[in-house]
Design brief:
Strand content: 15-25%
CATH superfamily of the largest domain: Dihydrodipicolinate Reductase, domain 2
CATH architecture of the largest domain: 2-Layer Sandwich
Number of helices: 17
Radius of gyration: 22 Å
Shape: globular
CATH topology of the largest domain: Dihydrodipicolinate Reductase, domain 2
Bound molecules: nicotinamide-adenine-dinucleotide
Largest sheet: 9 strands, mixed
Number of strands: 15
């Protein structure tokens, strides 16, 4: 058996450093981090301390890392949404295989260009659709393939983001604006589009969508609200008071969850004093009604697949828990589940209900429902076998991006139905014209 695959991490934030790098500790025989890039010195310092990467192989930018000759077998690209394609193109030219964070890009033309480049270079480009690598969705898909409900006819799915998570990421945080990151239906839900496509096991042909930014808007601010929570007369009473949320809230307060996500996004290595200071001056201390956010806070998508199978999907900020649900109905039964409960309920028509417990321990499925490590196992298995696509290769991923971006077009056009083949052709024509 060959030794570990060597890896360079481009972007050592929550994903690069906190979600993927720990794979080296768990599976040293599979992965060895040998280079990295990030403009934040404290992130590189942490990476070096934890994983023994040489100082001379830590670079302050993607450009400097990519200016070197190829330093590893694989590059993990975990920079922000709009940097992915530029970095991925350069890395493919250098001969790297890629683990690429989603979304590939909010620009469909760029997604298509990267797919073409991956084909030309013959390198593997695995996109981080981590849900396919969770025990929950893997078991669901397996049951459907075995014909547990006969021929699937409808799929109903929901993503419940949770009010505090939405405020953190999509009102105050990095993914609040379409122009600096992506529309919410792509950013948060390209995973869900990918899962619907995978469960349907056929191409999606049309989508239609409604949704808006309903609540986190200036007109919904209480008349006496200040721009920052620390200056606000409602401090301590408002649901979204940043001081309470990040210091003591049961979902995301430092006192309760410790120095973990999302507190460590507000400030690296958080302490109460460092947090208070960051909330006085940084983006996470702003009033949720007075931010510069513009992404939708709720959206619903209807989808038609090639055989006539229909699906409906809803994403909402306004939920207490952060979880996903799904229900598939078929000609012979129905299958449903809540990802947070890690069990599936199968009802074959005319027979008693079966509850399928997915909680049995299994090393491959640890962490984030198994998805973060699962996608790395899948990548290294793929490379060992000489393949290039795998379960979440670029070809499959681009389909989910076409679905999500068409849904966003529909939402902006008041719910008009979008034909996906025509939508993709339009992007191909635009690429050819530029
Ligand atoms: N697969 C998933 O389930 C999932 C979950 C969350 C986020 N994501 C995606 O992962 C990506 C990263 O998200 P994150 O939460 O880690 O964000 P993050 O902000 O924590 O990390 C991004 C990192 O990139 C670094 N960076 C900025 N400019 C750089 C440059 N020029 N060169 C190198 N590094 C640079 C930043 O300093 C930061 O450390 C995003 O595209 C996001 O959409 C995917």
């Amino acid at each position: 058996m060959r030794g570990p695959f060597t890896v360079a991490i481009c972007g050592c934030g929550s994903r690069g450093l906190d979600a993927y790098a720990p794979f080296q500790t768990a599976y040293p025989e599979k992965m060895k981090i040998v280079a990295a890039a990030d403009p934040r010195p404290e992130r590189l310092e942490k990476l070096r301390a934890l994983y023994g990467v040489a100082a001379e192989r830590c670079y302050p930018s993607d450009e400097e890392l990519l200016a070197q000759p190829r330093l590893a077998d694989v590059m993990i690209i975990a920079t922000m949404d709009r940097m992915h394609v530029k970095d991925a193109m350069a890395a493919l030219d250098k001969g790297y295989h890629l683990l690429l964070e989603k979304p590939i890009s909010p620009d469909l033309g760029e997604c298509l260009a990267l797919r073409e480049k991956a084909h030309e270079t013959g390198r593997a480009v695995v996109v981080c659709h981590v849900l396919r690598h969770t025990r929950f969705y893997a078991a669901l898909e397996d049951l459907l393939r075995q014909g547990a409900v006969g021929r699937p006819v409808t799929i109903e799915a929901s993503e419940n983001v949770a009010w505090w998570h939405f405020a953190h990421s999509f009102v105050r945080g990095n993914w609040r604006r379409r122009d600096t990151s992506s529309p919410m239906i792509l950013q948060k839900c390209c995973h869900d589009m990918d899962i619907l496509r995978w469960l349907a096991s056929e191409r999606c042909v049309k989508v239609q969508s409604f949704g808006s930014l309903d609540f986190f808007r200036p007109e919904n601010a209480p008349a006496d609200a200040a721009d920052r929570c620390c200056d606000c007369p409602r401090r301590g009473q408002c649901l979204y008071d940043a001081g309470t949320l990040y210091l003591s809230d049961p979902h995301c307060g430092l006192d309760v969850i410790g120095p973990n996500w999302p507190v460590d996004v507000v400030v690296t290595d958080p302490t109460p004093d460092k947090l208070r200071q960051a909330l006085r001056t940084g983006p996470y201390g702003r009033c949720v009604f007075r931010c510069d956010n513009d992404v939708a806070d709720h959206q619903t998508v209807n989808l038609l697949f090639a055989s006539g199978l229909t699906a409906s999907f809803t994403v909402s900020a306004f939920t207490e828990r952060c979880h996903r649900t799904v229900k598939v109905t078929g000609t012979l039964g129905e299958l449903s589940g809540d990802m947070a409960e890690t069990r599936l309920i199968l009802h074959r028509f005319g027979q008693p209900e079966e509850v399928i417990d997915l909680q049995k321990p299994d090393g491959r499925f640890s962490g984030h429902g198994g998805g973060d490590f699962g996608v790395l196992h899948s990548l290294f298995d793929l490379l060992a076998s000489g393949g290039t696509q795998g379960l979440t290769g670029i070809d499959a991923s681009v389909e989910s991006h076409v679905m999500a971006l068409a849904a966003e077009r529909s939402r902006q056009q008041g719910g008009q139905t979008i034909d996906l083949a025509a939508f993709e052709q339009e992007a191909i024509r635009q690429c050819a014209d530029t």
